[in-house]
């Protein structure tokens, strides 16, 4: 809104001032032209009186006129054309722009701080302050408006350019100055000539323009004297003559040019003309930054002449016409078409030509300050002595005429009117009158005389008298239905009422409303309607009636003038913001409307400013479509104005917000953006690459991979899976790999774990630990996966996509790690970069781009971002009959040729720190260094290939494969180890492995086992021995870490070696993922990288095969030799639980082997004669084997093989022994924690617990059974033979053991009946697991079963004994009782021979016999001692008797009787007593 530099009263006074015509001779013009000024221009700055003026009103009352201003204009004989007026107003608005660099004018409105004078795109974000406080501040503020100088300039020019009309006299000339130079030969004659010209112009019918106030116009004669020419006396004499002729009040001598033009310009004389002349030299200004615009009309092109029209002298009707063409007159050669609907386009003229016009010319160079005072004095004299007396006299005359008519009756007055109005148009009906502009009055009409008097009174600030006259005239005009005249009277009556001092009556706004409506709707005169609006709006604003003012301004917006509509809408917007309760959204909406109309009017800068101001309100409110529209318009206008950075910024905002636009609209936005961007980049082709807004990059999802891509499988060769970008990150697996690597590093460091161990990281992502600088290797690629997202509904095409990097070379081998200077994005000899030629992103697609760098030197690499060309493809319509989706996938995208090159930075925020108190209470983020790798010197690179690696196995199946190790690096590698959590799954074989065939083809039909042909046919076992350390299960080593037996332990660059590897199917069915970690080192030790690893995950699917259950019992039979008296019976149940899914026909048990340090299998006690044991589906076989204690206990394990087939598998060699030892180790590892608890408690407890342990050991055996089998499989009409082995670990005498470790698998593997048999035992096992000895106060007691194994008893006697009872009634039979101490300690034994006759059943069982001799024996047995006791049994008659009645009590010698208990015999000892 126009800032009130003037009050509304001052504005209205200056809008209507007395007009004075000026008619100058050519000589007079030459005098003033020395100052680069015309006469009217010369006196223009001095046309406001500095003192009060007095005059008498018709009632002879003294009337004071303050601050009076007059306007002196050249006589223009042609009325201005509408198009020229529009051009003038358009240029006035164009030139007036917000001043650059000024402090922004900020209006606080509601919860917004609006930066009103800021016209840049970067409009300030709305400031959300307290709404209430802001509103209170608004209410108490007295001045909170924004300057709009373009509107003030427009308004002033508009009012000045109003053409004079017949219905009002305000812009008719009151007087005329005749100006002649004193240097003319005959100045008086020249005055006469000018006077005649003025008379002819006013009174002849040839000239209808300009208009004159009254026929008797005041003529004022001015003699202009050039002081620099001298001749003062001549000038004075001419002036004297003039005074004689015209009177002292009718002429004036004006002396100017006191200073010669050739004098130095050091003296600074003020230039008061510049502010006035700026408006008249608009054509010399550069309206737009990119050159002048031409108005293209609907018909032809119109080119404008300079607006002041100087130099266009022409002869009219033989007169030497000095009348200047009207400043608004169009060129005579142009078409006089109207300017409605004009568009502004840029002509092809160069900017240099337009710049030449824009030169500033100094004014008043020949004038001194004294001359300024003379001009000021001249205006004062003219006004005091000439103009005001003339006006006062005219008012009196008009008043007298009106008074003389007052006494006449209305009818007579009407008759007079008819007499006066002889030239009136014929009478019309009321309806017809209302539809036209009404009557046309002759100049002498009394109604016009009233109006004339009112206008004169108004011009000299006699507003009360003016109001009364306007009011009277209004009534007359309305009575006559002269609507144009009535509207004029209403308009000025309202202004007069407002300007009356003391405001005796309120401002009649309804007068103005009626006038506006009449002008617009009835008279169809928009200029007059606009003047009304401008005046009334200023009055309403001065009364703080902003709502009414806004409504008034909006009412006059129409399609006939975009510029007027834009200015009025903008003022209305400012009214909304200045209300008591600011209406911010209305302000913004009307600013948008104003900007749109400015744009249509060609006012690009003003349009841009309006949109930017509105953007402050809409920004960040979720009105995305409105934001898009505003930003798009701002971008377009900025581009037109060559504000390219602003244009780019605006289009960028459209694209980066989540757009709700349609695909077509988004495509248009994108193309526009690319076009603008390309223009920007062309301006500075060598400048830094700009940041592109599309596509979005999810920086935190960036992944960095170090190393080569995984090789694809070639036939039977399968490369190690290692790690790749295709794998999803899982924290559990990541932790497992870390554990494996830690184990390998500890093993390489001779079993000691490193305190500062950090795992090798090949793939860095948002889950990995990125606090350290990652390590890359020279000549090994670094792949960066960037996550792009296309937020638009149109496809994006990225071309020449590559990484942007910075590299700092460093030599890590030198002692000082010397640095060289930084080299940015250059030097292909340092870093090679992969370029993706085309990367298409479909609409709203998230897509990963993998970009590679190839470092060629050691140093520090910093990956900064990506660089690419952003473009689009042609619309996805069907191209040449091909479906667009097909075209998009072929890789040959049809670009529309529009693309720009730019960059996007990868900035990754590290994890939030949360360890210390300070970090928890503040927001701090740690570093993320995944994009800053350190490039180290060369390292070996191992590749591992698995040959004929199976995907499916039977449980326990043994399969032989080969592994190829290849060094593809540049330096030798050594120390290869493989680590796995499942060491029982595979083996590279022990020291005997080299005896096997060395290539897969050579071993295709061979057994995986080492076999020998068996010669003997007996079922006695064949024994061999082996040390567990040969198979990596020795004491103090980690079986999980296996050294790979490379030849010479070194693999040279480019070399490869194949090694056999045996696999054994896991005992549980299902899918198994088995992780291998290969560890290796370089021969040269590096400071940065000590070792490298290679990962492999094998996936094996196992199906059911056999289940083995075994139980061991002590045999009651004692050997004859002492010390060798231990033997046991082993019962083995083998069941085929295969469901034929793998095509297995039948299983053959080919061999059963034992493995123990103390026991060995001796023979098979097989009742059937068929040696070959075949098991079809769901069949079960039972074996009974005899085991004996080894003759000498050694550290080595003894292997005993009982062979059922024709070939013996040597179980003590690879791979049989390997898998046995590894499964044994896994079994031990599972129970190690329990054992460690028991042993630590045993050491801490007193001796009874040691005793318990000794007793428990008696029932423990250390015997392991290996069942080797073959399976016959039919596959593809071919029969294959599979081999395998199952292990059963027997710990306890009499307790069943299984070949599978997990109890939850029982029910699934076994049948229901089998499960029911095991229910009771498993519950006992569960109870035992929860039994915690450390929580009980009483010492643990051995179970009855354990005590029964402490002493083994055996009765030796004849099975049948015949006795002649008829000769001797008593039969005495000698019986030997053998006692064997099974424990490692001394045992006290008590044998009680007394019968226990607790019940009569016992007599029936035992029969009636008695022992002779001692009834109780006491003896002590040493460790492992066998003792015999000679007893005698006495029988009295024949029968079958059970001799197993002796009760044996045992206790450890050094213990009290707390543990003494009965010794039970497991089998009855029956004797048959016969009679002879």
Give a written overview of the molecule.
- With 1476 residues, this protein is of the alpha+beta class.
- 31% of the residues lie in helices and 26% in strands.
- It contains 34 helices and 59 strands.
- Strands 14, 26, 28, 30, 32, 35, 40, 42, 44, 46 and 47 form an eleven-stranded antiparallel sheet that branches. Strands 16, 18, 19, 21, 23, 24 and 25 form a seven-stranded mixed sheet that branches.
- Helix 8 (232-246) links the parallel strand 8 and strand 9 (251-256).
- The longest helix is centred in the N-terminal third of the chain and has 38 residues, at 369-406.
- It starts with 7 loop residues before the first helix and ends with a strand.
- 39% of the residues are buried.
- About 15% of the residues have low confidence.
Strand portion, in percent? 25-35%
> Average pLDDT across residues?
76
Give the radius of gyration.
60 Å
Shape: rod-shaped
Distance linking N and C termini? 149 Å
List descriptors:
1476 residues, seven-stranded mixed beta sheet, alpha+beta, eleven-stranded antiparallel beta sheet, rod-shaped
């Amino acid at each position: 809104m126009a800032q009130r530099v003037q009050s509304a009263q001052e504005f209205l006074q200056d809008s209507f001032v007395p007009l004075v015509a000026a008619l100058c001779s050519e000589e007079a013009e030459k005098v003033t032209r020395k100052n680069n000024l015309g006469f009217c221009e010369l006196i223009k700055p001095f046309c406001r009186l500095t003192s009060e003026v007095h005059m008498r009103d018709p009632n002879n009352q003294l009337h004071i006129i303050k601050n009076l201003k007059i306007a002196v204009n050249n006589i223009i004989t042609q009325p201005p054309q509408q198009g020229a007026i529009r051009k003038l107003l358009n240029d006035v608005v164009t030139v007036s722009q917000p001043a650059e660099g000024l402090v922004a004018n900020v209006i606080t409105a509601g919860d917004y701080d609006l930066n009103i004078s800021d016209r840049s795109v970067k409009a300030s974000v709305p400031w959300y302050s307290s709404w209430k406080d802001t509103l209170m501040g608004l209410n108490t503020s007295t001045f909170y408006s924004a300057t709009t100088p373009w509107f003030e300039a427009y308004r002033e020019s508009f009012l000045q350019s109003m053409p004079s009309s017949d219905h009002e006299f305000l812009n008719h000339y009151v007087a005329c100055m005749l100006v002649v130079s004193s240097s003319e030969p005959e100045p008086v004659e020249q005055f006469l000539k000018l006077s005649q010209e003025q008379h002819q112009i006013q009174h002849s019918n040839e000239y209808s323009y300009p208009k004159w106030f009254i026929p008797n116009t005041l003529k004022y004669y001015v003699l202009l004297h050039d002081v620099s020419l001298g001749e003062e006396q001549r000038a004075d004499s001419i002036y004297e003559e003039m005074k004689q002729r015209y009177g002292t009040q009718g002429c004036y001598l004006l002396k100017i040019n006191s200073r010669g033009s050739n004098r130095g310009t050091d003296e600074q004389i003020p230039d008061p003309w510049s502010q006035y002349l700026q408006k008249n030299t608009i054509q010399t200004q550069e309206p737009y930054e990119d050159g002048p615009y031409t108005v293209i009309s609907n018909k032809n092109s119109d080119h404008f002449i300079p607006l002041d029209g100087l130099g266009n002298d022409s002869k009219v009707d033989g007169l030497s016409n000095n009348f200047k063409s009207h400043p608004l007159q169009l060129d005579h050669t142009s078409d006089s078409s109207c300017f409605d609907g004009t568009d502004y386009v840029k002509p092809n003229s160069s900017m240099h030509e337009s710049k030449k016009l824009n030169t500033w010319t100094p004014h008043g160079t020949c004038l001194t300050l004294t001359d300024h005072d003379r001009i000021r004095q001249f205006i004062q004299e003219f006004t005091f002595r000439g103009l005001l007396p003339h006006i006062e006299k005219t008012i009196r005359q008009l008043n007298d005429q009106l008074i003389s008519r007052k006494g006449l009756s209305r009818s007579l007055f009407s008759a007079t009117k008819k007499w006066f109005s002889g030239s009136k148009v014929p009478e019309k009906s009321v309806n017809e009158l209302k539809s036209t502009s009404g009557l046309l009055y002759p100049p002498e009409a009394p109604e016009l005389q009233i109006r004339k008097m009112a206008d004169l009174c108004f011009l000299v600030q006699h507003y009360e008298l003016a109001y009364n006259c306007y009011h009277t005239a209004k009534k007359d005009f309305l009575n006559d239905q002269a609507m144009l005249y009535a509207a004029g009277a209403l308009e000025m009556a309202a202004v007069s009422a407002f300007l009356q001092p003391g405001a005796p009556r309120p401002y009649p706004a309804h007068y103005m409303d009626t006038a506006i409506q009449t002008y617009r709707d009835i008279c169809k005169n928009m200029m007059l309607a606009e003047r009304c609006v401008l005046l009334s709006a200023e009055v309403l604003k001065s009364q703080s009636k902003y709502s009414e003012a806004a409504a008034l301004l909006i009412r006059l917006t129409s399609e006939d003038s975009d510029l007027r509509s834009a200015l009025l809408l903008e003022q209305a917007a400012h009214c909304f913001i200045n209300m008591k309760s600011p209406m911010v959204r209305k302000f913004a909406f009307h600013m948008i409307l104003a900007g749109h109309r400015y744009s249509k009017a060609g006012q690009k800068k003003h349009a841009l400013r309006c949109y930017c101001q509105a953007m402050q309100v809409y920004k960040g409110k979720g009105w995305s479509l409105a934001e898009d529209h505003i930003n798009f318009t701002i971008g377009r206008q900025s581009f037109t104005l060559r504000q390219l950075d602003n244009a780019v910024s605006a289009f960028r905002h459209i694209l980066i917000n989540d757009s709700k636009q349609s695909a077509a609209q988004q495509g248009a936005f994108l193309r526009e953006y690319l076009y603008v961007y390309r223009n920007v980049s062309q301006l500075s082709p060598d400048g830094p690459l700009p940041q592109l807004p599309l596509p979005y990059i999810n920086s935190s999802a960036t992944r960095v991979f170090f190393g080569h891509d995984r090789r694809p499988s070639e036939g039977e060769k399968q490369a190690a899976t290692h790690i790749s970008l295709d794998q999803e990150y899982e924290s559990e697996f990541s932790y497992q790999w870390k554990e494996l690597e830690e184990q390998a590093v500890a093993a390489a460091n001779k079993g000691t774990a490193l305190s500062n161990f950090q795992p090798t990281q090949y793939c860095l992502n948002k889950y990995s630990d990125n606090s350290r600088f990652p390590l890359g290797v020279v000549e090994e690629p670094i792949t960066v996966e960037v996550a792009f997202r296309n937020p638009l509904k149109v496809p994006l095409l990225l071309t020449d996509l590559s990484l942007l990097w910075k590299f700092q070379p460093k030599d890590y081998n030198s002692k000082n790690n010397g640095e060289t200077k930084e080299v940015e994005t250059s030097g292909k000899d340092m870093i090679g970069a992969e370029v993706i030629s085309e990367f298409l992103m479909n609409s709203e697609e998230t897509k990963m781009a993998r970009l590679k760098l190839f470092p060629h030197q050691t140093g520090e690499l910093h990956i900064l971002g990506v660089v690419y060309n952003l473009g689009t493809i042609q619309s996805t319509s069907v191209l040449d009959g091909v479906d667009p989706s097909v075209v998009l996938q072929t890789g040959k995208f049809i670009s529309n040729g529009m693309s720009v090159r730019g960059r996007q930075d990868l900035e990754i925020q590290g994890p939030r720190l949360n360890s210390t108190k300070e970090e928890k209470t503040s927001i701090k983020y740690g570093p993320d260094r995944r994009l800053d790798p350190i490039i180290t010197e060369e390292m070996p690179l191992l590749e591992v290939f698995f040959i004929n690696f199976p995907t499916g196995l039977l449980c326990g199946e043994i399969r032989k494969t080969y592994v190829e190790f290849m060094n593809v690096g540049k330096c030798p590698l050594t120390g290869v180890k493989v680590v796995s959590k499942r060491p029982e799954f595979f083996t590279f074989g022990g020291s005997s492995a080299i005896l096997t065939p060395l290539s897969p083809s050579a071993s295709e039909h061979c057994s995986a086992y080492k076999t020998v042909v068996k010669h003997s046919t007996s079922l006695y076992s064949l024994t061999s021995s082996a040390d567990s350390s040969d198979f990596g299960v020795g004491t103090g080593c980690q079986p999980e870490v296996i050294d790979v037996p490379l030849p010479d332990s070194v693999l040279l660059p480019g070399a490869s070696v194949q090694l056999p590897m045996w696999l054994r199917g896991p005992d549980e069915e299902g899918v198994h993922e088995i992780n291998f970690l290969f560890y290796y080192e370089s021969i040269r030790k590096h400071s940065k990288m000590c070792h490298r690893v290679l990962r492999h995950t094998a996936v094996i699917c196992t199906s059911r095969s056999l289940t083995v259950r075994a139980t061991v019992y002590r045999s009651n039979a004692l050997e004859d030799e002492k010390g060798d008296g231990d033997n046991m019976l082993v019962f083995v149940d083998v069941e085929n639980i295969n469901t034929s899914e793998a095509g297995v026909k039948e299983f053959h048990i080919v061999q059963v082997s034992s493995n123990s340090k103390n026991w060995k299998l001796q023979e098979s006690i097989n009742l059937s004669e068929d040696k070959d044991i075949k098991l079809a589906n769901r069949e079960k076989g039972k074996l009974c084997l005899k085991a004996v204690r080894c003759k000498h206990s050694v550290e080595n394990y003894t292997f005993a093989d009982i062979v059922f087939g024709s070939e013996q598998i040597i179980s003590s060699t690879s791979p049989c022994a390997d898998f046995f030892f590894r499964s044994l180790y896994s079994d031990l590892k599972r129970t190690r924690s329990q054992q460690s608890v028991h042993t630590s408690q045993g050491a801490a407890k007193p001796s009874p617990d040691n005793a318990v342990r000794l007793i428990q050991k008696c029932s423990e055996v250390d015997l392991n059974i290996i069942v080797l089998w073959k399976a016959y499989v039919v596959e593809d009409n071919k029969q294959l033979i599979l081999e395998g082995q199952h292990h059963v670990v027997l710990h306890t005498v009499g307790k069943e053991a299984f070949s599978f470790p997990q109890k939850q698998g029982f029910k699934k593997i076994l049948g229901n009946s089998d499960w029911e048999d095991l229910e009771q035992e498993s519950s006992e096992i569960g109870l035992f697991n929860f039994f915690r000895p450390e929580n009980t106060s009483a010492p643990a007691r051995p179970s009855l079963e354990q005590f029964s194994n402490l002493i083994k008893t055996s009765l030796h006697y004849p099975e049948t004994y015949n006795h002649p009872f008829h000769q001797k009634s008593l039969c005495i039979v000698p019986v030997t009782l053998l006692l064997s101490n099974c424990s490692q300690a001394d045992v006290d034994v008590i044998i009680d021979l007394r019968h226990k006759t607790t019940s009569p059943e016992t007599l029936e069982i035992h029969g009636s016999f008695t022992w002779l001799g001692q009834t109780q024996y006491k003896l002590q047995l040493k460790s492992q001692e066998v003792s015999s006791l000679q007893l005698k049994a006495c029988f009295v008659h024949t029968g079958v008797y059970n001799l197993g009645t002796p009760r044996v009590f045992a206790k450890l010698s050094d213990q009290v009787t707390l543990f003494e208990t009965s010794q039970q015999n497991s089998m009855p000892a029956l004797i048959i007593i016969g009679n002879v």
